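Q: Two folds, back to back.
A: First:
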Amino acid sequence: MKDIGVPLIIAFFGAAIAAFWPWIQSLQRGRRFQRIIRRELEEIGPRPEAPVEDKPWWDHATRRFIHEELFHRQSISQNRDFLLSLDPTLIYQVSQLWIALEKRDGRQWLHFLSALARNRRVGSPGLRDAHKKWETIIGAQRAEWLTTMGTPTAFRQGAVLARVPPLFDRRFVAYGRLLALTDVGSAAQPRELDLPERSELADGLMAWYYEQGAGLLLSGRAFAQFQRVQDALLAQYTEPAALQLEFSRLRTDLKIDLGVRQVQERDVAIGWPEEERW
């Protein structure tokens, strides 16, 4: 019996290990991924950390994370089994956090940051500090920037993508004409324009705006900056350096529209090399 019992015990434990091995591996992967989430959420603080005029809160969320990619709506079905191995509360809070960013819902973003900061699995001093910084950013936002924009339907997303090539071509041509009107010197040597010269330049900008509907190609951000340039030109007096700065910001917004600059590069003097963007 002893000779028979030992092999039976070994066989039993071997079968048990084989049966539970996938579950053990899944548990280990889940714990490792949970540690990744905790580590990444420590770096979710806003950049820059202080509110910036005319910069919506979502433009402060410049960092991208590994776990964020897995929680994207188009990725959830592919990673369903893995995500279901995690703590249900954690899955819910993290997924809702990134949905809030996608929908531009500042109140929900702050709410789920607070919930995750209190979550015993991923909460940390770094995340709690990031939450406090986000409270400052959200508290300084315009009311319209805190209202959810919703998630575009698949039809609407497809329509936007279908317009991308012709929109880029039209912007490239129209912005090329506008660029010639924005030369008011450099930051080191701004041109000083008298009132008649500034008035003539303002008229030239408005002529461009209405020519062949060029103004309709401006994004909301670029249009707002276009108006600030007009205001600076038509003011009784504007310092040459201040006027040059407004034109510089307009050129940057045009580049953002064309996709050759990123939103987070708006206050960067020289754009980042392509290989450093990702």
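A: Second:
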Amino acid sequence: MFGRIGRERGWGQVTKEHFINEVKYGSFYVGTPEQVARKIAYAMKSIGAERFDFKYSNGPMAHSKLMNSIELYATKVVPMVKEILSADRAASIAASR
């Protein structure tokens, strides 16, 4: 996406530093299921979202890898996000009493 589309839009070349910055602070959700779950939960809490959706693949990716990503998201990440958000809600309720 950043290659062809970026050139068409006049964006600078993507560097490794840019990629790492997007993973840490931007909208790239890359890492272990735990890292991704924490980042999603943080983003949802920050904006008060109740739903979260994202693109699983950008660019060429083997079908097996895409399916593995979707499976990890469904079986690991989503349950962790729900657990994190539920624990935070419980802590907020307890603190308000």
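Q: And?
A: DSSP finds four helices and no strands in the chain.
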